[in-house]
Specification:
By secondary structure, the chain is mainly alpha-helical. It has six helices and two strands. The chain has a two-stranded antiparallel ribbon.
């Protein structure tokens, strides 16, 4: 993270950038089989599943909630199948390429949107409620921090690497 940040926006966005980069680094150098490898049965948790999940999280919070486009379909699956992002994480190079493309596209879109927001007080729509951009960003930091911990454990099971 950058030294001597000032202000709520700069700090939160820097933490989010840090965790995004940490997650990406943790997945580097792995092939489709390794990325799709499941943790412990019956869990469907895998690095590829986390990648797809985080792409869906970025998409949902920015495009659906903050842009107030709840009419947009979810990125993976439907409401009745919550784990579609994990269940569809199969050891296929095309699935891996699509997941990286989706994640990078959604991160770039979100970064641009958040940078252009006039303040952290901007409101998005979450069901029948409104949510401030600051709440969304703090939630994203929490989401990435939690999943970076999962990713660390998954990577360690694959090749013993830690602290990437």
């Amino acid at each position: 993270m950058t030294d001597m940040l000032r202000g709520e926006r700069a700090v939160v966005l820097d933490y989010l950038r840090h965790y995004r980069a940490t997650f990406e680094r943790t997945c580097q150098g792995l092939d489709a089989e390794q990325l799709a490898r499941r943790s412990v049965p019956p869990s469907s948790l895998s690095l590829l599943g986390l990648l797809r999940h985080l792409a869906a999280v970025e998409y949902s919070w920015c495009r659906r909630v903050m842009e107030r486009r709840l009419d947009r379909p979810k990125l993976y699956g439907k409401d009745e199948h919550r784990d579609a992002d994990f269940d569809g994480a199969v050891a296929d190079p095309a699935v891996v390429d699509e997941a990286w493309t989706a994640w990078r596209t959604e991160v770039a879109h979100a970064e641009q949107w958040y940078a252009g927001a006039p303040s952290l007080d901007v409101l998005g729509t979450l069901g029948d409620d409104e949510v401030e951009l600051r709440d969304v960003l703090v939630h994203l930091v929490e989401e990435y921090a939690r999943h970076c911990g999962h990713a660390d454990l998954l990577r360690e099971c694959i090749d013993g690497s830690t602290g990437l």
